[in-house]
Design a protein that fits this description.
The chain has 2 domains: about 210 residues, Rossmann fold (3-Layer(aba) Sandwich), CATH 3.40.50; about 110 residues, Orthogonal Bundle (Arc Repressor Mutant, subunit A). The protein is about 50% helix and about 15% strand. Strands 6-3-1-7-9-13-12 form a 7-stranded mixed sheet, sandwiched between helices. Strands 2-8 form a two-stranded antiparallel ribbon. α1 packs parallel to α6.
Length: about 325
């Protein structure tokens, strides 16, 4: 029996590729599945769902015309929320009809729901993510934590799956989640075929290597911002939590609590992330060896440096340099 897929044509600064790319991959999967004789009919009937059926213009250049309005879709099996940039609070309000409709579809019809990139904000606003794991673009992790503290954000993951609710990391990692859904509904052979035809890397699960650490300064604690600036200027020096606490005239315990409340990191984690970001830049843009990058970023112990680098990027320092340093790529070529 054919299932129903609803790709939402939401309002706002929608990343149009997350609508078009999703549509194209599911159409490919339907076609291959029939051609191979796995089924006589499409696995999914695909609709572009709008609040109404009026065409929606995105970014002045593209227009998407919904095939059905929310009122016309009484029941669906899978809902996909596209990536939406811009002001997430405004996005939530302008897309409130979608949010209420998704809640009803989940509760009444047990529909599965997948958010792509920053579409996770709309998904979380439904309340269906309470206590569940969620992935989204690494640029918005701090804002997401503030707005939805009851959701279990997993910042390093490209794909999150929790009892029929899915989410993906940033930007074009949505393609990995779509392939994951195709594997679930069509089987691995079809998913691999779609991956090869589209030349999309299959089974990529980690987005750490793409993240760029920007100190979380969207808070009002002026003294903590001063500490952050100090750490970013003196990261290569020996720094202790006790010394930092003295700068704010508080105890180490209170300083750690205050720092984490403002930045979502402990002081030690913050120092580590600043140092690893410095090492990444060194490995990307210079011919420095891994050891030189280690020393210049404030580390003297090879094992510690490599373990922290792998934790925050998902790659070893050498793998990172070979992948992102242009001169090293030319040498290998």
């Amino acid at each position: 029996m054919t299932k129903k897929l609803s790709i939402l044509a939401t309002k706002g600064l929608v990343i149009v590729d997350t609508i078009i790319g999703t549509l194209n991959l599911f159409q490919l999967a339907n076609s291959y599945h029939r051609k191979k004789g796995f089924s006589k009919e499409d696995v999914f009937r695909i609709d572009i769902a709008g609040i109404d059926k009026q065409p929606i213009r995105y970014n002045r250049y593209f227009s998407v015309t919904p095939t059905r309005s929310l009122e016309e879709i009484e029941e669906t099996d899978l809902i996909i929320i596209p990536g939406i940039a811009g002001n997430q609070i405004e996005n939530i309000e302008s897309n409130r009809p979608f949010i209420e409709w998704m809640k009803d579809q989940r509760v009444q019809n047990n529909a599965e729901i997948a958010s792509l990139c920053r579409g996770a904000f709309l998904l979380a606003e439904t309340g269906l993510m309470h206590g569940k794991a969620c992935a989204t673009h690494w640029l918005t992790h701090d804002q997401f934590r503030r707005m939805f503290p009851d959701v279990n954000l997993i910042p390093e993951k490209v794909i999150s799956e929790d009892n029929g609710i899915y989410s993906s990391g940033g930007a074009y990692s949505f393609l990995n989640l779509v392939l994951h859904l195709i594997e679930k509904y069509y089987g691995r052979e079809t998913a691999i075929w779609c991956s090869k035809i589209s030349e999309v890397e299959f089974d990529r699960m980690d987005q750490n290597q793409f993240a760029i650490f920007h100190g979380q300064k969207d808070h009002s604690d002026v003294e903590i911002k001063d500490i952050q600036n100090y750490l970013e200027e003196h990261f290569a020096e020996k720094i202790s939590v006790e010394d930092l606490a003295e700068r704010t005239a508080t105890s180490s315990r209170n300083f750690v609590r205050r720092f984490k409340k403002a930045t979502n990191n402990t002081p030690i984690e913050y120092i580590q992330r600043v140092r690893i970001e410095a090492a990444k830049k060194k490995l990307e843009s210079t011919t420095a060896s891994v050891h030189q990058a280690m020393y210049d970023s404030g580390y003297n112990d090879d094992k510690t440096f490599r373990n922290l680098f792998k934790r925050y990027t998902g790659l070893t320092p050498l793998e990172y340099r070979n992948k992102y340093n242009r001169e090293m790529a030319l040498v290998r070529a």
